[in-house]
Amino acid sequence: MSQQGTGGWRPDADAVVLVTGAAGVIGNVVVPYLADSGLRVVAVDRAPFASPKAERVLVGDVLDRDFVAESLRPFGGPVDAVVHLAAIPAPGQVPEDETLAQNVRGAYLVLDGAGRAGVRCAVAASSVAAYGYAWAERDLSPPYVPVDEAQPSVAIDSYGLSKTMTEQVGAFATRRWGMPTILLRFPFVGDGDRLAGHLARIRGDVAVNRRELWSWLDTRDAARAVHAALTSGLTGHHVFNVAAPDTSTTVPTAELLTRFHPDTRVRAPLGGVDSPLDSSAARRLLGFETRHGWRDADPTD
């Protein structure tokens, strides 16, 4: 799901990047990765946190308009780019209406505020939950696999809806301000003990992950995807699936689909343990390839 092409802004060695949700699962890895790549990072989260590689740490809530405005100008002028990761990360943590309201308001204040301030590029976390299967109250199946970004949302949960609306906020900010926006649809993201626990649950019962289509991504690859988006030079608004090329189980994908999604049409071959999510657009337009797998190594390493 893309608008326009390439030829936009690319960061130089002195570029300043604001990262919201910097203490979260993804943000905690994104901040040092961007800093190690030579970018100057301003890290934001709503509770006190340590971020040794950030040039500046700011504590505040992205639902606070004034705090967001100040964060976008930490050194007087606007930051060069924004990575918006702050959000309620899953349903059930707060009431449904608050999940929707907080995620969409935060995205609006950060992304619209960035465009208004003259920020050159924005990258934000969306989710495969935007398709509507992951957190639905009943089993839903995609009309076809591999699932690409053109597949429409059938979300019936507030978290999935909040992610589709976050993507729309990104498109709005691009239309309004001309600022490139790249939304990354992440599946389950983890490494170490978090990933090991996730894999163990699925190993015990593959059905528990049927609504997420057994998709996953190593946190270190999520950070690499953010960097690839920031340095892509894309203009316009884009939404990309960003997932590992394989599933989170050893059961063949064809067998999983037959058992749990029998009415889904297979439009392209899915051999072995190929992921039902199509991340080819991210490979093609961002130059993004995963580097970290779980099959040949202990996921706690």
TrEMBL record:
<dbReference type="Pfam" id="PF01370">
    <property type="entry name" value="Epimerase"/>
</dbReference>
<comment type="similarity">
    <text>Belongs to the NAD(P)-dependent epimerase/dehydratase family.</text>
</comment>
<keyword id="KW-0520">NAD</keyword>
<dbReference type="InterPro" id="IPR036291">
    <property type="entry name" value="NAD(P)-bd_dom_sf"/>
</dbReference>
<feature type="domain" description="NAD-dependent epimerase/dehydratase">
    <location>
        <begin position="17"/>
        <end position="243"/>
    </location>
</feature>
<dbReference type="InterPro" id="IPR001509">
    <property type="entry name" value="Epimerase_deHydtase"/>
</dbReference>
<keyword id="KW-0560">Oxidoreductase</keyword>
<protein>
    <submittedName>
        <fullName>Nucleoside-diphosphate-sugar epimerase</fullName>
    </submittedName>
</protein>
